Amino acid sequence: MKSLDQWSLWKRATFWNVIAAAGVYLGFLWSRPKLTPNVWGYIIVFYMGFANILFLSVRPRIAAEKDAGRPRPKPWRVLFEVLTEQPFITVLLLLQLARVSQAVAATIYFLQGPTDAFVRDTPNAEYIVPYFHLTGWFMASIAVIWLLSAIGLWRSNSWAWWLALVMNGLNVVLQLLNLHKFSLDPLSVAAVVLLLFPSVRKQFRGDKFAAQQVAG
């Protein structure tokens, strides 16, 4: 039987994410007092992201050092190395995960809305409830898109650069077009600036020299 580290990437990712998701679910059940969707959105996304980095990036490096006969490194030192190898990409990952968190929070809010007594007792509940469900699933799809961009950026996929640029750029444009309330989202602005940074753009074009610049 193959060891866990010999499994294919998608099998390992599925295995670890099922375990992490079970932990989040138990946290939902046992949390007292009940947390708001905004808080749960950030807890879910960043907990899952942290778990994936530990399981899929840190753990294999520790195993490789051990297999090579070298002293086993400290997990936190390896984690620091993983996060600082490509600092710009790490920051972009955090910015994208923040967007995923917001979308997840909105999903939880809208899908839980119909269970609220206030919503059920409103005169037009039969029209409001389908709106809540539809909006909730729409926000869930947006969360998936943000998540795909985050994963793709971490794996240095060129399509993820375009996806992240479109999503963040669209968010900035929509806010600029809001004539009633002028505002700029600093997260989206920061993401666009980083994505357009020369060394980052070159890295996603496969330029090895640029990739060394980003890592250094």
What this model shows, in words?
- This protein is an all-alpha fold and 216 residues long.
- It folds into two domains: 1-85, no CATH class; 106-216, no CATH class.
- The chain contains ten helices and no strands.
- It has helices at residues 9-30, 37-67, 75-85, 87-112, 117-120, 125-154, 158-176, 186-195, 198-203, 208-215.
- Helix 1 crosses helix 2 (37-67), helix 2 (37-67) crosses helix 4 and helix 4 (87-112) runs antiparallel to helix 8 (186-195).
- The longest helix is centred in the first third of the chain and has 31 residues, at 37-67.
- The chain starts with 8 loop residues before the first helix and ends with a helix.
- Residues 207-216 have low confidence and may be disordered.
Terminus-to-terminus distance: 40 Å
H/E order of the elements? HHHHHHHHHH
Count of separate structural domains: 2
Which range does the strand content fall in? under 5%
- Please tally the β strands and state the result: 0
Mean pLDDT: 82
As a percent range, the share of helical residues equals over 70%
Which structural category fits the helices and strands? mainly alpha
The value of Rg in angstroms is 20 Å
Largest sheet: none
> How many separate helices?
10
Low-pLDDT runs of 5+ residues are 207-216
User: Which geometry do the CA atoms define?
Assistant: globular
